[in-house]
Amino acid sequence: MSPSLKQHQSRLGRAFLLIASFSLVELATAIYSNSLTLLADAGHMLLDTVALGLAWLALKLSQLPATSRFTFGYHRTQVLAAFVNSLLLGLLVLWILIEALMRITSPQAMLPLPALAVALLGLIVNLIAFFWLNRGKENINVRAAALHVLGDILGSLAAIISALIVYFTGYLTIDALLALLVVVILSLSIWRVMKMSISVLLEAAPSGLDADTVRQVIASIDGVVEVQELRIWALTPEQPLATVRVAYRQGRDHQLIAQRIEDALAERFGVTSVTVQVIKTL
User: Fold this and answer.
1) Helix, strand or coil for residue 35?
2) Taking burial as the number of CB atoms within 10 A of a residue's CB, which of 53, 102, 224, 234 is the most buried?
3) pTM for this entry
């Protein structure tokens, strides 16, 4: 296992233990205090416990060697886990939305002081976990896990503000209104992760890597007559792949042309895994 992957796995493991150990405490306090924003954050933390466990498992599976059936190995498990995590988070957001709308029309009493104390502690826990995970944000699975924890931070802040306002003013509707604010912010984060994971699973060209531009660069290489086929996709967002078939001018060194294509894609676009097929023209 590479040093970077070991670090990603360690970050996910530490964050998992921290979030899991605190989520039950927050859930019990949320039910006791009847705080929707704290309950939403507690539910999110419980979901994060599962999400972080899935992310850690996916990262471990990605280290398994390729087989005769899974010739690319298990790297895509990271992307699949990120997609599942975004779906689960979407379901949680839907539940918070429905509950918040119900509480706007029928506000419910809550105990602000217990909610405030646990929300403050939850904010500290989530900030620590987010700091760990954000250092490995170049990995899609760690990035998806970090977004879950970012949602927890927002939930903790909303719970803190809600508890303070209820304590000092008695305005109960603020609990539901702040929960709606968290729903909007989380929805944007969910969309980003889901869009990225769907793009990889559908084998679209990686973001920022335009196929037409790549084709032009290959066509400009000395000896290349025609780019007959070009396919660009990604095993993970960090691992772009390409296959290309070109026709070359008779009398040129086809091995040299293939090497130039590989070098150009690596230097210009960061594509280090390239399969080149070179066909002689008449």
Assistant:
1) coil
2) 234
3) 0.71
